[in-house]
């Protein structure tokens, strides 16, 4: 079995990304941190391909099913014949490894203590089948998961950014490292290859914790804070954006599911060049569960499923839904930090009502108001 680094050249990586990838041995546990736009998801896919060449089963894991779909698409262009990588959610991998009767906990996850006991009991029994695990957006998985995979995996590589922790069962970089063991190596990938400097500057207003990220050199339009009298006006504006840029991807991020359903109905009647897509975590299969995130057009997603995604244009559709929240709340600020940094080129923060939401006040100089 190969244990040294395997030189697989991928021309779509920057020199910094390639250096990061090449610095990771094919053994041991590693935590790779980086700001939004640094290429963590792309590196996670490349890392999984590298590890698959050792001959062990290799899984690329995320918490979000929508991110899993995106990662699966990325892997299709990278996987080496004879060395497949399986993209899976954390829940799916647990069921595959421990069976569908794996004991559950009240928080919707699993009984980590019992699963860790089972993993310890079978440690070393079938070493060749022990998998490599690569985890994207690893801050969204609980500490119990990492204490488990420390025993259940041959190696664990985690890509994470603790400034993007949106779930109730999340972990800091220090907690992930501690759960994986003292020998876990820490690596940081720098740079932002997604956003414009205007978008990053606005995101900085909402960032909580962490070191100040690099500001991109690429410049673009100022983000827009826009008032809409009704959902109809918002839908009309989104349809106009899609008509002007038919080859681009527009991500509409919502907080309220009724808003998403209303927008979807209106956009379906708008005669767009590409049929709009809506993701629902409640759907078990079909058009609202399995999306084509690579094609142009409008995609509507709840903010809980937006992490790891990116779009040419992002519309945060119902900012007024946060009006009652404390604008200094770390949870609220982190949510907007994540949503804002999904945008590659253009960003619209949309709101309805009679008063500008408090968390959108004081943004003069960072945004245009319409």
Automatic annotation (TrEMBL):
Transmembrane segments: none annotated. The keyword Nucleotide-binding applies. GO terms for biological process: recombinational repair. The keyword Nucleus does not apply. Keywords: ATP-binding, Nucleotide-binding. GO terms for molecular function: 3'-5' DNA helicase activity; ATP binding; DNA binding. This is ATP-binding domain-containing protein. The lineage of its organism: Bacteria, Bacillati, Actinomycetota, Actinomycetes, Kitasatosporales.
């Amino acid at each position: 079995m190969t244990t040294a680094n395997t030189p697989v050249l991928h021309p779509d990586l920057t020199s910094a990304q390639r250096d990061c990838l090449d610095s990771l041995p094919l053994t041991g546990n590693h935590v790779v941190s980086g700001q939004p736009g640094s290429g963590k998801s792309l590196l996670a896919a490349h890392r999984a391909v590298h590890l698959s060449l050792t001959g062990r089963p290799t899984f690329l894991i995320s918490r979000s099913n929508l991110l899993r779909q995106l990662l699966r698409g990325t892997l299709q262009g990278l996987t080496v014949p004879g060395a497949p990588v399986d993209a899976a959610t954390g829940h799916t991998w647990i069921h595959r490894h421990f069976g569908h009767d794996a004991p559950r906990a009240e928080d919707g996850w699993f009984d980590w203590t019992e699963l860790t006991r089972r993993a310890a009991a079978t440690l070393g029994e079938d070493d060749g089948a022990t998998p490599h695990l690569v985890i994207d957006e690893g801050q969204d998985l609980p500490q119990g998961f990492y204490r488990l995979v420390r025993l259940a995996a041959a190696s664990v590589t985690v890509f994470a950014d603790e400034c993007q922790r949106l779930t109730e069962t999340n972990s800091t970089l220090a907690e992930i490292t501690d759960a994986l063991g003292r020998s876990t190596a820490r690596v940081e990938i720098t740079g932002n290859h997604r956003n414009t400097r205007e978008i990053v500057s606005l995101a900085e207003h909402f960032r909580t914790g962490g070191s100040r990220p690099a500001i991109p050199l690429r410049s673009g339009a100022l983000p827009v804070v826009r008032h809409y009298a009704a959902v109809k006006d918002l839908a009309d504006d989104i349809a106009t954006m899609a008509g002007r840029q038919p080859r681009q991807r527009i991500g509409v991020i919502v907080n309220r599911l009724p808003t998403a359903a209303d927008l979807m109905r209106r956009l379906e009647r708008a005669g767009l060049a590409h049929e709009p897509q809506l993701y629902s975590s409640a759907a078990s299969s079909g058009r609202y569960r399995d999306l084509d995130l690579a094609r142009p057009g409008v995609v509507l997603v709840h903010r809980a499923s937006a992490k790891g995604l990116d779009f040419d244009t992002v519309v945060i559709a119902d900012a007024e839904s946060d009006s009652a929240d404390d604008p200094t709340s770390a949870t609220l600020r982190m949510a907007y930090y994540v949503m804002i940094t999904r945008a590659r080129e253009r960003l619209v923060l949309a709101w309805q009502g009679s008063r500008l939401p408090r968390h959108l006040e004081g943004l003069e100089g960072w945004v245009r108001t319409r």
